[in-house]
Amino acid sequence: MNRRALLNVARIVVSAGLLAWVLSRVGLADLAAMMRGADPGLLALAAGISVVGVVVRAWRWQVLLRAVGARVPFRRLVYLNFVGQFFSSFLPTGFAGDVVRVLEAGDGASPAQAAGTVLVDRLTGFVGLFALALIALPFSRGLIPPEWAWGIAGLSAVVIAGAGVLFEGRLLRRVTGRLPGGLSLASGSWLARAYDVITACGWRAILGALGVATLFNLMQIAFSWIFALALGIQAAPLYFALFIPIATVALLVPLSISGLGVREQIYLTLFASPAVGLAGAEAVALSLGAYALDLVTAVVGGVLYFGAGALGLRRSG
C-alpha cells in the first residue's frame, strides 16, 4: 500500500473514531428523537437554500474568470460547482472539488486561469465569512466570553490580512524571489503563471467576488439557522455567524473524510459550552445537519457528473 493510500485509510479511521467518540458522549437515542421530530417544511427550505447557494458560488467564480479574460458558460460553472461539491464530500481531501473544477473548466479558460481564479474564489469565500464574523462581534456582547471574541477577531484579522497580501502580489513576489526557480513567483514557472492570474483579477473583480461571497455566506448562515429551527433548537443567528468560520478553517486540515468527526467535535465544544447552553445532542445534530445539507448538493453533483459521462458531455461547454 502506497503512502497516499495509507493516509486515506488513516483519515477514515480518524473520522470513524472521532465520530464514534462524539456520539458516545451525546447518545444516539437523543439524536434519533430530534431527527424524527424535525419539521419537514423547514428542512426542505434549508435544503433549497443550500442548492441555490451552489449557483451563487458559480456566479462568484464567473466574476473572476471574466476579469482575466476567460469565457466559460455560466451553466458550465454551475455544473462544475455541483460536481466539485460531490468530490469534496466523498473524497479524503476537501480540495478535491477544486482540483476537478480546474481540470474540467474546458476550453474557455487556460489551466493557469482556472487554477488562479479557483484559488481567489476560495479565498474570497473565506474573507467574506470572516468579515461577517467581525461585523457580528460588536453585537455578540453577552453571548460569548470576551476571550472567544478576541480569538475570533484575531483569526479574522489574520485571514483577511493574509488574503490581502496574496491579492496585492508585489510583496510575495519580492519574498519568493530568492527561492529556487520552480517556487519563485517571478520565475515564469507554472506556479508563477497561476499567481499572475491571481493578481490579474484586479481589485474591482475581487471586491465584486467578495460581494457575491457575502450573499452566499448569509445564505449559509440562514440555512444553518433554519435547520436548527426545524429541529426545535433555539440558537441566535449570531452564533452561526461567529462559529461557522471557525469550523470552516478547522476543516481545511486534512485529518478526516469531509470533516466528519472534526466538525462534530467543534460544534460540541462551541454550541454545547456554558456560554451558549445547547445540549450535547443538539450541538451534534446541528453539525450532522450541516453535513447532510452538503450531501444534498453533493448528490446533485454526482448525478450530473455521471449523467454527463454517460451522455459524453463531460468536457463540453
Comma- or semicolon-separated keywords:
317 residues, 75% helix, globular
The tally of strands reads 0
Low-confidence stretches: none
State the end-to-end CA separation: 38 Å
Q: Any idea what the radius of gyration is?
A: 20 Å
The major sheet is characterized as:
none
As a percent range, the share of strand residues is: under 5%
- Helicity range: over 70%
Tell me the overall shape: globular
Write the element-wise H/E pattern from the N-terminal end onward.
HHHHHHHHHHHHH
Present the secondary structure layout.
Blueprint: H1 3-26, H2 28-36, H3 40-67, H4 74-90, H5 96-103, H6 111-136, H7 146-168, H8 170-176, H9 190-200, H10 202-230, H11 237-250, H12 262-271, H13 280-310
Helix pairs in contact: 1-12, 2-13, 3-4, 3-6, 3-10, 3-13, 4-5, 4-13, 5-6, 6-7, 6-9, 6-10, 6-11, 10-11, 11-12, 12-13
Provide structural commentary:
With 317 residues, this protein is mainly alpha-helical. It has a domain at 3-115 and 204-309. The chain has helices at 3-26, 28-36, 40-67, 74-90, 96-103, 111-136, 146-168, 170-176, 190-200, 202-230, 237-250, 262-271, 280-310. The mean pLDDT is 83.
How would you summarize what this structure contains?
By secondary structure, this protein is mainly alpha-helical. It is built from 13 helices and no strands. The chain is globular.
